[in-house]
Each structure stands twice: as structure tokens, then as C-alpha cells.
Amino acid sequence: MAAGGLLSTVPKPGFFHLDLFIKDTKDVTPWYDDLKGRMEREKGPMENAMANLLSVFAFRIERGQGEARKLLEKLTEKDKNNLNAIANKQFIYGQLMRAKDEMLCRDRLQELLSDESDAATARNARCFAEQAYALTFDVRDDSKDMVSKVRQAISLLETALSLVCNSDALTEEECLVWKYYLSVCYWRFDQVRNDRQDKTPLTEDDRKEGLLKAQRLLIEVTKMNPSWKHGRSYIARAWALLGALENKCRETFKRYTSPSYIQEEIPRAEGLQFGCFLKALEINPNDSEIYRRFGRSYMRVNMFNEARRMLNKSIEIMPDCRSNWFAYYDRSQVSMLEYDQKRKEAPGPAASPSKELLQGAKQDAVASCKGVLTPFNIYHVGKVCHRLAVHPVTGNVENMDELGDALDNFTMALQLEDGFANPRIHAARGQSLQAAGEHEKAAESYKRAFEKDDATFTRNLAGVLRNLLELYRSDHREHYIAELAFWINEGYKKYRYPNIKRALQGSVCKFGSQMIQVCQYLIDHDKSVLAGFCLECFERHNDLRCRSTAETMRRRLQEVDDERASGADDMSSISTQFRSNVHVNLPVTVEKPRHGQEFQYDFFVSHSSKDADWVDYALLPALEGDLRFKGCVADRDFMPGKSVFDNIIYSIENSYKTLLILTPNFVTSEWCKYETEQALMESLKSKSGRVIPIMLHVCDVPRSVRTITYLDVSRDAIGSYDWLKLKKALEETPPTEKK
């Protein structure tokens, strides 16, 4: 199977134990309103699933427990044996401390689940199908666990169908409705897997099984009896989804032949994917969802006028942005893509099309956010605002208000559930900060994007380097050279050769003399291979002086390699000839700590000197430059003339938290052992958790800190979720009285 797998034939009824996204959502009112609207429009076998889910939404609304109870009591009056409704009532009665009613529900469930009749089998199957509907309601592609949720929904529906495949306990129409929702799950499973930010690219075979299975299921649904009272609605939607699948299969598979059934049913002149949509509208011309899918299909092939016409019709049928927010989002996308096309067709490099299209895109994007707030549609508002603010060719800021709106929206998107883990949002924020001239913050945003992006996308590392080089060019603080060298090394570990050159090329082209200094720093610190990759990028540099200097350095590197091959191992000559005298002094970027009433520093970093690069150029810029905590590190903040022991004790006592950077070097360092002992003593005295271990490289955790939960970043550079956890730990309210 492409996903899923059969489950036990006896369900665990109820929705409250399911991993629904609303558990982490502060306000479920938009979803409640949306589902209530759907229940008025969509009738059929999934009505009970909607009613059960609506009760869960009502329960999550402030003072909504009573309404949730009434919804379920009404449902069990209509269907007294609905397993999910009884289980949901049992949960709510327990919350309302109605023990007698809770026990009655429990006993009724036990009685129904012990039944082995055909009617009981059908009841169990409906329970599975309803739970699948709940899991995939309003799937958000950016959610970190949607893949597992959709996979679970597929398992539930396949189990439901397997229970009744040879039974007369269910009507054929109800089974076909389940097959329709199963096909939707396979469609969404492909979508959420392909859109994941931390993915490796999916192969054609990875995607083919699920998409073709969805296609076969939909063909079955189109053969449903149209005289059934809900038949035309499901048949029309099946044809619409077949049209979308035709489009996706043609884009995805090198060798794809449309099923003979579709070829026979759809006139060739219309094109199969568009013909499927036209057939759907012929069957049901009043379904806003069909028009939306049709418009999206036109958008994918840049037929913008046709796409807008279909989306306008979808919004005309259902203007409420809470129920039809996706149509507003799609229409905004159409306007933005059309603007991009006109920009490419502009007569001259400095010319740009009217921004009227972007104004319309912003209105629709804001409307979609009024419907539902998710990271990806707020991020979309930010993208539109950025384009309104910045000239598309020169990059000059034309409207600071729009640029401010862009930054506000990107920040809001990062603060929502799963937003901080999305590299696209960090990268877009970095682009806007760069346009605003805030290069330090831009570099940090691009770092977060680089840390979470896949190993084929080098543009975010290029953003890190470009903004660090801008900072160095403006104030010549030498530590930026060392920081650049660190991130080039991180990029090489992630991208390898020759991909790393794609990230370096733009920086070399624009910042030639500064990159020569970076190359020399790499040579001085035994990174001659990386220096060689950088120097290769100078081969076609416009500046003759930079090009000749790079050529000389490359030639000397080759001579040194030849000397090493013959037994010599001396880099002193090249280091002496070109040494840039880089002396790294870390800047103090934060003047006042967040916990300044009681502490001089927010954190002290205990680490081995051999791990200083990561501390200086990854940890400190993130915590100080981006998150604005005030840190203390030995090389920068220890008081000259004081003994090292006194400096350590003073720094730990006057820091709210101590970060222990766990590595094999840390474990063998006597200074680190002493700092750990002092930090634990201070934590014990204050009776609060003052120590945060961070596992940078796998090592034996010291016995004294094994009982403390640590952040594990040993698989890669520290990731977005770990920065967020660290931020929360450092923001916790300190003890009211320091002891």
C-alpha cells in the first residue's frame, strides 16, 4: 500500500483521543464556523462525522462545553448507536462531573463493542470512517505531523471498507462515499509529503501508487447511481478531483496514459483535465469547490484570465471568507503570478508593470487570513506586501509602510504553530530585512532558513554570506571574517562540492576583496580545501586585481599540495605572504539583560576552547543578535587581572542560566568540569533549574548532569525547534529572591 495498513476490527471510539491539530490551537472559532457552514451545505453519510467534530470544536471554545453536550445528545437521539457520539458524550460528561451519565455511556459502549453481528460490523466501520474524516478535516500542508495524520486516516478508511466489502449491512452508495474520501486522503497524502520542508525529494515511484489508487477510486465514484439523493454532488466532485489528478499525473510522471474510461467519457477537443472539470460543472453547476479546483488547474498552466473567472464564480457562490478562504488565497496567487509574468515581459530592465494586480492580491490574501490564520497564508500576505514595497528589478524600497507590513506578517507567521520551523518564512523575512538595511537580523533569519532547509537549496546560505559581508564592508569588524568562514564550512558539510560553489558565486562576484580575506582566513586555519573552492569562483571575476590575487593564491595552494605529496607539510609560506592579520574580537551586541533586575547576564556558556567556533558564530549570534539575550563567554567577558577561578564563579553567579556545550572536548576539559560543578552548586543554592546542557557532538554525558534534560543538536547545526526551546527556557521567570 502507498500508505496506511489495516487496523484492528474493533475501534477505539471517540474523537477526543485523536491527534487533532486543534489541541495546539488557541482559537478554533474559524474551524467551528467553517464546519457549521459545511453541515448546512453538505448532506450525506458523513453528516454524523461532521456533527461529532463540531462538538469537539464547540468544546474547545470558551464556555462551549454545554453546547458540545447538546450537539451530541441531539446526535444520539437521531442515531442512538453512533459509537463516536457515545464516546464523545462520555468524555464531556466526565469533564462536567456527571458521573452517572458518564458510566451509562461507558456501559453502552461496552455492550455495543462486544456485539459481533453484521449490524455491529457496519457500526464499527462507520466509527473508523468518521474518525478518518476528523483527522483530515481542513488539512494544513505546513503542519509538521500531517503526513502521519493522513496516513492514519487512510488506514482507518481502508479498515472500514475491508469490514463491509462483502456485507449487505451498508448501502453501495455509502461505501462509494467512503471511497471518495479515501481518494481525497491519497491526494492529500501526496500533497503533504511533497510539500514537507524537511523532506528528501520524492521519486516518481514514491508518488505513483497513491495517486493512481486515488484515480481508480474516483472512477468508481463517478459510476454512482445519480438518482440517489446525494449522488450528483459526489459524482461531480469526483470528476473535479479526477481533473486535478490528470493535471498532477501529467506533471509528475514521465510516462503517463490516461485511463481508457476517462478518454471515453471526455471529448478530446476539451483536453482531459479541463474536460473533467467541465463535466463536473455540467452535473453540479452550483458547487463552489469545483469552481475553485478548476481555477487552480487553470492557474497551474498560467491561464490567468480563465483561472480568475472560475475563482470569481467560486467566491460568488460562497462569498464568506471563513468558509471559502482557500478561493480568496488562490485568487491572490493568480494576481501575483500574473504580475510576475508581466514583469518578465516588461520592455526594459528598469520598467515594471502597474502594481494594481498586487493591490488586488493583497486584498484577497487579507481576506483569506480573516477566514483562517495559518502560517502559510499569513506568509503569503507578507510576500505580497514585500513585492508592493520593493522595485522588482532594482530592489530599491519604494514603500516603507508596505515593507513594515511584510515584516509584521512574517513575524506573525513565525509565531504561529509550526511557523518557526518553516525555512521559507525565515528566508522571506531575511529578504525583507535585507531590503530594509537590517543586515544583522537578515543574516540571522537566513541562518534559521539554512538550518531547516534541505541539502539541495543553497540560496539561504548565500543570504547568510551576503548580509555578513555587507556588515563587514560597513564597519570592518574583523570577527565577521571568522563568522563567514564558519558558515562556509557549515555549508560545505551540508551541500558538499560542487554545490557549495553556487552559494559562494554571488558573494565572490559582489564582495571580491572581502572574500579574498575570507579565503586567507580559511588558509590560516587549515581549511585550504574550502579556500580553494572559494578561489575557483574568482576565475571570471570582473576586477582584475581580485582575479590575479586569487589566481596567485590558488597557484601557491597547489604548490603546497605538491610539497605535501612529496613529504613536506608547511603552510607557513602562503600564510606569511598573504596573511590578513585577522584578530577576532567578539562584539557585545546586547547591553542590558532581560533578567537585569537580578542578573548581569541572561546566560553563561561553558564550553571547550576547541568548540569555540560554534559558540561564537552560531550560538551567540542566534541568542544575542536575533533573540536579544545578553550572554557571557570567557574570551570576551572575563575581567582582565582577575583569576580564572574568580571569573568563573562571578559569571555563573551573575548569569540567570548556564549553558553546557557537551562534546568529547567538553568531557575531557578540566576547566569545563570545574564550571559544571560551580553551575550545579549555584542551581542547588537557588533551588531552581539554572543549568541547560546542549549536546553538540555525541559524548558520554557527565554523571553530574545526567538527570537534567538536554537539547540534542548532535545530528546537525542547531535547528529551529531547538532555538525556540532554548528561547523559552531563557525566558522563564527567575526566582523572586536570589539566595
Automatic annotation (TrEMBL):
Q: Where is the TIR domain?
A: 599-730
InterPro entries, alphabetized: TIR_dom (IPR000157), Toll_tir_struct_dom_sf (IPR035897), TPR-like_helical_dom_sf (IPR011990), TPR_rpt (IPR019734), TTC22 (IPR042342)
- Pfam families the record matches: TIR_2 (PF13676)
Lipid biosynthesis in keyword set? no
Q: One biological-process term from Gene Ontology?
A: signal transduction
Q: Identify the stretches annotated as TPR repeats.
A: 288-321
Q: Which domain of life, per UniProt?
A: Eukaryota
Question: What are the record keywords, sorted?
Answer: TPR repeat
- Key word Transmembrane present: no
Position of the signal peptide:
none
Q: Which PANTHER family match?
A: TETRATRICOPEPTIDE REPEAT PROTEIN 22
Name-wise, this protein is TIR domain-containing protein
User: Which organism is this protein's natural source?
Assistant: Branchiostoma floridae (Florida lancelet)
